[in-house]
Amino acid sequence: MLATIGVESVTALFDQIPATLQLNRPLDLPPALCELELEQFVQKQAENNLGRHHVCFLGGGVYDHFIPAAVDAIAGRSEFYTAYTPYQAEASQGSLQAFFEYQTLICQLTGMDVSNASLYEGGTAVSEAVFMAMRCTRRHSRIVILGSVHPDYRQVVETYLQRLQCELVTIDTPGGTADLATVEAAVNDQTACLVIQQPNFFGCLEQAEQLVDIAHQAGALAIVSFDPISLGALKRPGDIGADIAVAEGQSLGIPMQYGGPFLGIMTCRQKFVRQMPGRLIGQTVDREGRDCFVLNLQAREQHIRREKATSNICTNQGLLAVRATVYLSLLGPQGLQQVADLSCGKAHYAANRLCEVDGIDLAFDRPFFKEFTLTCRDGAQAVVNRARESGFDIGPACVRAGASADDKLLVVAVTESRRREEIDALVAILES
């Protein structure tokens, strides 16, 4: 290149640049940043142009977790982004393999035997799990669900059951978690399943293993709705004896995006697999002995007469399952544990600081993970409004979410994305 333009050396090429402007000395640069810190820095600079950016402490099932840029880059490739339902296995090997990897990762994450790929979102996953438990136990007259399960999930279950001769028993949880004796009295030999959420809607940790044992003693199945990120710190559903484990997968690399679309995760024990709804991807070999992937046990869905189908959920959230696959692959077990530890530690710091504000206290004396419930003397909505005016989104108020009649209860969530200075700034705003 130098020969073509007639210049002897690179030094000669740059002679025309004043020496004071040349990069011929060590640069006074700040320390290197990780991807999360860099994104926060750039976002903070962008606020000078775009106006105030609201800091998110919102909970209740949708969370502001950090999403590595690689998730968007890989899931945005055309072979994933525009792929259609993989009915023709020979033309869909890439999609099928991605879903197979998703199932594998979810089984490793939960400690369960089988995962489907996948369901719509967390609420319908709970309802499909209830129907599945009714088929497995052949008990169709009674379902027991804890009042600490997300109110939206409970409402979806109620809607699913309203035309069936099935009693839905909701266990009140005034202390933030279920009383074991009350649950034991409610679960009987007619109960198909007991539905638990861990951590629950209020952020509290239930006595999950004891609750699972209560269900099993009555011959019922234990359904556990879990937070995927929490499994970096808490026991997996498979390790506490869950029969069916379901989740909202939004925290696994999926943006908040105005409440959806999201990802319904469902797993179960091997012996229940023929009653599982949704798609199952299996690995086999073709006639030349090469590894390939197929749709298994398709009699569950629309490939047979409707009245014979296990479930009429016949599509999935494949693109979002791919995002979860990329996210989990990037983080690995250590990364997931780090996200869980950061979320848990920052949540406890935030809870301690917020309780320093006059008129605000923790509502429940129970262990929590990344989410907790406050009791606000002046009302939860007043605190939400005050925070919003200053650029902080917190909540929801439990009465607005339908989780409690007490208008003083407020849910707050803290993820690894929140910084100490943001937590301290929120406290300062509420103190003022």
Question: Overview of this structure, please?
Answer:
The protein is of the alpha/beta class and 432 residues long. The protein folds into two domains: 35-66 and 332-431, Aspartate Aminotransferase, domain 1; 69-328, Aspartate Aminotransferase, domain 2 (3-Layer(aba) Sandwich), CATH 3.40.640. 37% of the residues lie in helices and 16% in strands. It has a seven-stranded mixed sheet, with helices on both faces. Strands 11-12-14 form a three-stranded antiparallel sheet, with helices on one face. The chain has a two-stranded parallel sheet with strand order 1-13. Strand 3, helix 8 and strand 4 (167-171) form a beta-alpha-beta unit. The longest helix has 37 residues, at 318-354.
* Order of adjacent strands in the largest pleated sheet: 2-8-7-6-5-3-4
What is the averaged pLDDT score? 93
Kindly report the name of the CATH homologous superfamily of the largest domain.
Answer: Type I PLP-dependent aspartate aminotransferase-like (Major domain)
Number of alpha- plus pi-helical segments? 14
- Which structural class is indicated by helix and strand composition? alpha/beta
Major sheet description? 7 strands, mixed
User: Which CATH first-tier class of the largest domain would you pick?
Assistant: Alpha Beta
Compute the number of structural domains. Answer: 2
Question: Low-confidence runs (pLDDT<50, min 5 residues)?
Answer: none
Summarize the helix and strand pattern as letters.
Answer: HHHEHHHEHEHEHEHEEEEEHEEHEHEH
Distance between the termini: 65 Å
* Form type: flat
Gyration radius, to the nearest Å?
A: 25 Å
Assess the beta-strand content as a share of residues: 15-25%
Q: Tell me the helix content.
A: 25-40%
User: What is the number of strand segments?
Assistant: 14
CATH architecture of the largest domain: 3-Layer(aba) Sandwich
- For this structure, the CATH topology of the largest domain is Aspartate Aminotransferase, domain 2
